[in-house]
C-alpha cells in the first residue's frame, strides 16, 4: 500500500471517516493554460489596436495580429476556460468512507448493509474498481448497477458481479487495488462495530 492508502487505513481502523479526493492537478494546469493564452490573445488585440501608427499593419504568422488575437481569445477564453472549469468541477469529486457507508460524487450514498465486498476487474486502461451490492442494495440503486453493467460489457471486462456499482477510478491518491482494499476494510470494521 502507498503512503496515502496506509494513512487512510489507519484512520479507518480508528473509526474515523476518510475522504479520498480526485487528482485535479492536470485539470487545474489546463485552466491556468487557457487563462494565460486568453491573456495573450487580449495582448495581441491590444497590440493590434493600439500598438502601431495609423495605417501600419503588424503580422503574426502570416496573419494580421488583430484577427489572430481575436481567434486566440475566442478559442482559449470563450471556449477553453468554460470547458476547463467544467472539467475541474468534475475532478473535485470525492469518495467518502464514513460510519454509515460510502458516498460517491457527493450525491450517492451506499450504506454498509448494502455492500457485500469490493474488488477490481479488468486490466490497464480497462480496469475498474467496484462494490458488490446485496439484492436489496442493487434494487435500490438499479440505475447505478445498470450503468456499471453497460460500461463493463462495453469494455469487455469480466470478473465483476452482476450487482456491481463502479467506484470512481480517477482518484490519484490511491490505486484501484488500494481503493478496493480500503472499502473492504471500512465495510468490515463498520459492520463489526454496528
TrEMBL record:
<keyword id="KW-1133">Transmembrane helix</keyword>
<feature type="transmembrane region" description="Helical">
    <location>
        <begin position="65"/>
        <end position="86"/>
    </location>
</feature>
<protein>
    <recommendedName>
        <fullName>PH domain-containing protein</fullName>
    </recommendedName>
</protein>
<keyword id="KW-0812">Transmembrane</keyword>
<feature type="transmembrane region" description="Helical">
    <location>
        <begin position="28"/>
        <end position="45"/>
    </location>
</feature>
<keyword id="KW-0472">Membrane</keyword>
Amino acid at each position: 500500500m502507498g503512503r496515502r492508502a496506509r494513512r487512510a487505513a489507519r484512520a479507518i481502523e480508528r473509526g474515523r471517516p476518510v475522504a479520498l479526493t480526485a487528482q485535479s492537478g492536470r485539470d487545474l494546469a489546463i485552466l491556468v493554460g487557457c487563462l494565460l493564452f486568453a491573456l495573450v490573445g487580449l495582448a495581441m488585440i491590444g497590440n493590434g489596436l493600439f500598438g502601431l501608427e495609423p495605417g501600419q499593419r503588424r503580422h503574426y504568422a502570416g496573419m494580421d495580429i488583430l484577427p489572430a488575437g481575436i481567434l486566440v481569445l475566442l478559442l482559449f477564453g470563450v471556449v477553453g476556460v468554460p470547458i476547463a472549469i467544467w472539467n475541474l468541477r468534475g475532478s473535485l469529486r470525492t469518495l467518502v468512507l464514513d460510519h454509515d457507508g460510502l458516498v460517491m460524487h457527493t450525491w450517492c450514498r451506499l450504506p454498509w448493509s448494502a455492500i457485500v465486498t469490493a474488488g477490481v476487474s479488468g486490466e490497464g486502461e480497462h480496469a475498474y474498481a467496484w462494490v458488490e451490492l446485496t439484492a436489496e442494495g442493487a434494487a435500490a440503486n438499479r440505475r447505478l448497477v445498470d450503468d456499471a453493467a453497460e460500461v463493463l460489457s462495453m469494455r469487455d471486462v469480466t470478473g465483476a458481479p452482476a450487482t456491481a456499482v463502479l467506484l470512481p477510478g480517477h482518484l490519484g491518491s490511491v490505486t484501484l487495488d488500494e481503493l478496493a482494499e480500503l472499502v473492504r476494510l471500512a465495510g468490515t470494521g463498520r459492520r463489526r462495530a454496528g
